[in-house]
Structures are given as structure tokens and as C-alpha cells.
Amino acid sequence: MATLIPSYEKVLTMKVKPEEGELYLLKFLDNELDSSFEVYFNPFMNGDRPDIIIMRKGFGVMVIEVKDYNLDLYELDDRKNFVIKSNKAKTHKSPIRQVLKYKDNLYELHIDKLLEKKIKDIQNFNIVSSVVYFHNANPSRINDFLIKPFQENYSYLKFLRYNIDFIGRERDGSLKTISITEKFEGKKKVFVSQYSDLNSILSRRYLKANKPSFLFTDEIYESFRRFLKPPIHLLEDGIQIPYSKKQMEIIYDSTRKQQRIKGVVGSGKTTVLAGRAVQAHKRTKGKVLILTFNITLKNYIRDKISQVREEFPWGNFVITNYHNFINSELNNLGIPVVVPSDFDKLTDDEKAEYFEKEYYSNKNLFEQNRASIKPYDVILIDEIQDYKRAWMEILKECFLTPEGEYVLFGDVKQNIYNNTTDGKDVSTNVRGVTELKNCFRSDFKIKDLAINYQKDIFKDKYEIDNFNSKQNNLELDFGRNQQGSINYIHLTNTDNVTSLFTIIHENAINKDIPPNDITILGHSISLLKKFDAFYRYASNEKTNTMFETFEMVYRMGLNYIKKNDHPVWLKDGIALIKRENDFKTENAFNQLSILFTIYDLYKEYGEKFKNKLDYYTSKFKTTTAEYLIFRRKYESEINNFIEDFGPKRQTSNLKMIRNNKKIHFYMNSGTVKISTIHSFKGWESETLFLILEKKYSQMQMTFDEILYTGITRSRANLVIINFGNEEYHSKLKMLVEKVK
């Protein structure tokens, strides 16, 4: 028998009763599989709700979507979504797309390092396979509905062959599978449907094999297992947190189920949110949804919750940001995402506006699907100043139980997205406000700088915070007792990043600051990405970024080149590093990506990176002289490759990578952190280098808020490096001199 999680008996007692098809398949899998197969029913996936996941250590993972549809009642639209024939009013997202979305999210959102492995070797995408089970259709009917009508659609059938298998139920109750295979009819390659049993697709997708998979390592297995079966947080896992009286009032208040918490910088808003989340779960025994705007705060909030000295099951907490939450719910509810025919011609802003109107702010859409929504007993929102009013209404009216708790946390002075304010405060759907006025996070210099900034910059826009002094010794000091340091450096030469590196690295060395305590913030990814490459190869230190590296961009670009159609320059490049006899190109592509990055540094900064180029060319079995000859010979071809497959071509991939790196960001990585201010909002760092760039047109309205947010990310030591912003030079110089 399989290892069912939870047990079949517990599944039968669930609050939301399983569908007939889900129970039938679960029982079938329990009887057919041995105990080495872990079968997860409705597993915890941080907002995603697949029906069943099968996992076998050493072999792989299979996601199964179960549908009780009577296929005779449906027809397919041009995107192969399921449309009810009788009125054509109700359209369901294709279950094929639905199950593949769950798979994509495992790579892009949920399992750390899995996306990076996929980028480096596409075979890693085969670790997870996808299946759709139609409980009320046999394989022949599935074939007639989803496969046979598209015999001339080569790309669709090829897609099914490599990505999807189906399970159907015969009249005698037996389950049979259907997969797509290829065969030749003369010289023509055709796709045919192959009928078999469960063992065939388990073998086909490598969950049954003679030897373990070299892809599904023990490390990846453990990552999946921790995610699919979150542990119980024990009392002793937490710490004793001496909350203030006001903080305790908010955390333990069971009478005011709807509140808005307004806090000054460093008042412990996130600590209070974490405490409230745990106590709300203990009160309701239900699911707690914690939402942010900035997805990087997910792990920060989780760390804060883990400090709470209580026992609770992690499986009852969903921590994500609004957009990922809505995307997951659209998929869970089977709502198809439809785009207009001219979508590709729209600008990025027009595309964002379209999705905002049709999905993220469309309350009517979720009201129509209210019967299928599984609501939460508690919804807590951090960074409420970044939320649109429509989002708040959707969450409160469509995703909260009638007597649920709804608490909002925020600071209007960090309104970096220029959302509508009510007077000088955030506009929300909760009446009244509870204030946290005590600043605990930083030492006094940072606090004084924040106060002076508010008085000078925000005096006509927002109410100035009233910072109270600590009222008693029980209040937790989130910052440091020492005075800390604040420095301001004005750079007029911004032609390269050498001066930035010198300032930051020499400061770290001279003051003996550990890399783990250093964070570097800026506004533009282009500057930060260049600085990151410079820093890594000049210092021989690793970094932790919330964006792609140059090596990753080159690596993805090389992936676009078909294996059987390598251009001459690429063949010569692979031969140069003695990789022409490799069975796979992965190692060659990885090494070329590193050499491309170092060559860019060498080309711009000269002798500073000559030794580094010497080292890596030798490591990759060539010489600098040979590599430079190669680059000169194919300069035009390589430049064309960079233009054709560079960042402009990879917009969607870069967005996916950035999102993934933000989700799996941790402060205690042991390395220097490099991030945009937007992505670091909500976090804090012991030593912060804030790079102030020129004011761009698209940030005119919120530049003051962005700068304030950046300054208040420091706990103790702040170095502001003005990298060419003459407009703010005198303002910042004066503000810093007041508190130095």
C-alpha cells in the first residue's frame, strides 16, 4: 500500500468533502502502489491546491488534476478551454493548463534552486510530470475529445507527448491511461494514442525505473518533502519576546476582528503581525492568509512567526503577495486567463493595466465564483499602503469567512507606488486606526534622520510621526544600543562602478564588517547587475541578489540555440574549451557564460580583470590569448547573438527569475546582499550602502518615498552614496550633517 498523506481515514473527515473522483483515484493509488510512493492529497502548497501529488524518493514527482466532468456536456473553445454546450456562458480553464500551472509554480515559486537547475539543464524540468484524470470518461472518450480532432496540429500533439498523460475510467471501474507516442508511416512522423495502465506512465515518467534518477537528488527530494508536508512548530522553537503593552493589546485582542495598525518606522509592525497571526489561528483553529505586496517579505514574516513561542502547524499559514495569491486562485478556481488578439502589440504598461482591470481588481469575477472559493478564517495584510482599494474589497468580501479576522498593517510614508490617500493617510476598508508610536528598530541616529527627513520632505504631504520614548523595560529593542553611524558621499564621476566598489569594499575591510551584515540598495537593476558582477570577480566573494546575473542571461540565451543547429562561432567556442566531445552542452554553456561575463569586465575595466580572465581561461582548458583571438574573430557574430538573445528577448524569463529569487531570499545567507529598494522594502540590514541615482521620469511622483524607504532599511550603519543626483545633493548633505 502507498504512503497516504494524510491517511484515507483523515481524508474522509475533512471539513471540505473530497469529490467522488478524488476519493476513487486515491483508493486506487493506495492499492496499486507500494509504501515507497508518497501520495499527497490536497497538499499544502502556499495557496496552490492541486488534487493529488505522487512522490517517490530517488525517482520523481507527479501532479494529478482530477475532474468529474461529463465530457458530453462540454466543447472546446479556440484555446481548448472547456465550455458548457447548453448556454456557452460558463468557461472552465483547461485542466491541462491547470495542472501544468501547478508544475510551473513548483519550479518558479515553491522549491528553492529548482528553477536554476532547469535553466542550466532543461532535463530537470522532467523531475515533475503532469497527469489529468477524468473520472467520468474512459480513455477512448478522452481521445475523441482532446486528441483525435487535432491530428493535423503537430505542435499541440507534440506538446501533449512531452508534457501530459491522461487517466480514464472504464465501465467496469478499472483505470486505464492514455499517452501520445510517435511512429513513422513511411517517411512521415505521426502521433498516435497509446492505451495502457498506471505502471506505463509511472515508467514513462521515471517514477518506476531500474535505477534512481540522477536528477531527483536527495537534496531536491527533501526540499519537496519539507514543502509538501510542513512540520509542527513547537513551543521550544520560539523565543521569549517581551512585547510592549500596546503590542500585546493588538496580538491578543479577540473582540476587534477588523483593525488597521499604523506604525512609525521601527515600531515592530511585522513582529506584531506574526504574533497576531499565531494567536488568531489558535482562536479560530482555521487557515491564516498573510499577504504582502513585496514577495521578498515572505521569508522575513515566516522567520518572525517562527520566533513566536507557541505550538502550531505550519500547514495552516499561507504567506504570499497579492498578485501570486490571485494567480493561484484563478488557477485553483479554473478561471481561464484570456488576452486580446492584439496583446503582443501592447506596451508593458498597457498589458499591466489590462490584467489589473480584468483580473486583479475585478471583484465581480470572484463574486461569480464565490461558491467555489475556499475562504480563510484570518486575513492579515502587511504594507497596506501599497494595496489598491479594489484589492482590499476582493479579499475582505470574497476570501474571508463571515466572522473572520481582518487586520491591516502599514506606513503611508512608504507609499512608493503613489496609491490614493485619504487626507494624509492610507485609504482602506477598515474604520479607525490603532497606532504604534514607539521606535525600537534602529539606534537614535537613524531615527533622528527619519524624523528630520519627514519634517523637511513630507511636511506638506503626510502627518509627521510622533515617536514616543520607551515606556518600560519590558519592550523589546529591535535595534542596537550604540549610536551607529551615518555618512554621505557625493560622486560626480559616474562613468563606471569602480568608485562604488572601492567605497563599499574598503569600508567593509577597514571596519571589519562581515559580508552577511552588508546590504547594497539602488534603484536600477542595470547598475546593480553591473556592480554585482564587478564585486564578485574583484573581491572573490559570493553575493545574494534579487535579480538575474549576467551569466544567467548568457546561459538562457545559449539555450535558445537549437542543439542540432549550432553556428560556427559556438562550435569553435565549445571546441576552444575542449567540450566538443561532451554528450550534453550544459557544461560548455555554463563555462562560456562565465567567460562572456569576465570578458565584458575586462573589456570595460582593462587590467583590473586580466588576472581573473587568465584564471578562468586556464581553468576551462584554454588561454587568455586564444580566447581573445576567438572573440576578435567572431566579434560580429557574438554581438548579434547578444542582441538577438539578450534581455529584450528574455523579458518573461527575467521576470520569472527575479520573482523566484525574491521568494527564496534570506538575510542570513552569509553573503553581501544586493537589491533594489523596492524589493528590499520591509527588510532591514545592520550596515546599509544606499546608492542614490538620478531621478527618472517614471519615478517623479514617488522618489521621496523611495528614498525614505531606502534610508529606513538601516538598523545601525548607513552610507548614502550619491551617484550623480545633483538635485538631492544639498538636501541630503544638510540632513546628514544634522545627525552626524
Give keywords.
740 residues, alpha/beta, six-stranded parallel beta sheet, globular
Topology:
Blueprint: E1 3-5, H1 8-12, H2 20-32, E2 37-41, E3 52-56, E4 60-67, E5 74-76, E6 82-84, E7 91-92, H3 95-110, H4 114-120, E8 128-134, H5 139-147, H6 154-163, E9 164-169, E10 175-185, E11 188-196, H7 198-204, H8 218-228, E12 232-233, H9 245-252, E13 258-263, H10 269-284, E14 288-292, H11 297-306, E15 312-313, E16 317-321, H12 322-332, H13 348-360, H14 363-368, E17 376-381, H15 389-398, E18 400-410, E19 421-422, E20 425-426, E21 434-436, H16 444-457, E22 485-491, H17 498-510, E23 518-522, H18 525-539, E24 543-545, H19 550-559, H20 568-576, H21 586-605, H22 610-619, H23 624-633, H24 635-645, H25 651-663, E25 672-676, H26 677-680, E26 685-692, H27 703-711, E27 714-723, H28 729-739
Parallel strand pairs: 1-2, 4-8, 8-9, 13-18, 13-21, 14-16, 14-17, 17-18, 22-27, 23-25, 23-26, 24-25, 26-27
Antiparallel strand pairs: 2-3, 3-4, 5-6, 6-7, 9-10, 10-11, 12-15, 19-20
Helix pairs in contact: 3-25, 9-10, 10-11, 16-28, 17-18, 19-21, 19-24, 21-22
Task: Please tell me about this protein's structure.
- There is one protein chain.
- With 740 residues, the chain is an alpha/beta fold.
- It is built from 28 helices and 27 strands.
- The strands form six sheets. An eight-stranded mixed β-sheet has the order 1-2-3-4-8-9-10-11, sandwiched between helices. Strands 16-14-17-18-13-21 form a six-stranded parallel β-sheet. A six-stranded parallel β-sheet has the order 22-27-26-23-25-24, with helices on both faces.
- Helix 27 (703-711) links the parallel strand 26 (685-692) and strand 27.
- Helix 3 packs across helix 25 (651-663) and helix 16 (444-457) packs across helix 28.
- The radius of gyration is 28 Å and the shape is globular.
- It starts with a strand and ends with a helix.
- The model is unreliable at 469-482 (pLDDT under 50).
